[in-house]
Amino acid sequence: MAHDxxxxxxxxxxxxxxxxxxRQLDLHHGTVDRVLSQARLRKIERLSPPSRLDPFxxxxxxxxxxxxxxxxxxxxxxxxxxxxxxxxxHFRHLIAPYRLRPQPEAYLRLxxxxx
Length: 115
Description:
This protein has helices at residues 2-16, 18-25, 29-38, 57-66, 72-81, 88-95. By secondary structure, the protein is mainly α.
């Protein structure tokens, strides 16, 4: 019974410190994650810190909705005028998921038989 209560107390710590366990045991973090998941210990995901781009996201989304073909460099210049201090390459990387992707077209490849 004492073993079960100890295990319940250690569950959050084990799930949180999977990377530390891997380093201490000189194992790959994926191995430790797999073993912990087999023991039904879920990995605790960390929240990403707020981005410099977060205050400007409503403006960016609105602008991309109106002008979907607007280049990242033009959009970056517009956001810089409003106070963004990050670099243009990182900006391009951050807005890529918010861009609309064209729907792929299905097509049938024609094969011509030799004469």
